[in-house]
Amino acid sequence: AWTYSVGILLLMGGVAVHPRVLERLINFALRAFKRDPVQIAFSFGGLLYITGLYTLSWCGYGLALYVFISSLTPIPPGLVWAMIPIHAMAYTAGLLAPLAPGGLGVREGFLALFLGYHLPGAVAALSALLSRLWFTGAEILCLAVAAGVGRGLQRAPDAGAGQKAQDVGKKAGG
């Protein structure tokens, strides 16, 4: 029965990412918020490609959550497939919470709720709280790496310009 559900969801998702359908859906929501309509400039293939990349990304986050929780406590290997939608729903709920900065508390609440169907309540709650710290630490690490790379890119032209000036001086007989 679940295979039919997955097939129907994939079919509905494929239809929803068609540029004409997606544009209508987005503009319907924008009208509700009294915003100007948008025009989708991507092709159907381009939108399917982007959707595929996002799907892989969510699968990676779910797998990461599974590995994280399994490092804290033994959990069944089959639970990895539940972690993908659990994390996606919790993250989305936190993202859509208007009064919670960064979804603080909302994401953890949804994560604990959904994990509670598969794990003991205390394990689910602790996993939800610790996962916030883990993901925040990973984001800070990525920010630090990006800042370091960015700083290195800014210095590279200056160093090269100084070297060129010295080379010109040597050729001129200095």
Would you kindly provide a written description of the structure presented here, covering whatever features stand out?
With 174 residues, this protein is mainly α. Helices cover 78% and strands 0% of the residues. It has helices at 2-16, 19-32, 44-72, 80-96, 106-115, 121-171. The mean pLDDT is 86.
Please give a quick description of this structure.
α3 (44-72) crosses α4 (80-96), α4 runs antiparallel to α5 and α5 (106-115) packs across α6. This protein is 78% helix and 0% strand.
Question: How is the secondary structure organized here?
Answer:
Elements: H1 2-16, H2 19-32, H3 44-72, H4 80-96, H5 106-115, H6 121-171
Helix pairs in contact: 3-4, 4-5, 5-6
Largest sheet: none
Work out the strand percent: under 5%
Q: CA-to-CA gap between the ends?
A: 82 Å
Q: How much helicity do the residues have?
A: over 70%
Q: H/E element string?
A: HHHHHH
Number of helical segments?
Answer: 6
Structural class: mainly alpha
What integer value in Å does the Rg equal?
Answer: 24 Å
Uncertain ranges: none
What is the number of strand segments?
0
Principal-axes shape call = globular
The overall pLDDT, averaged over residues, is: 86
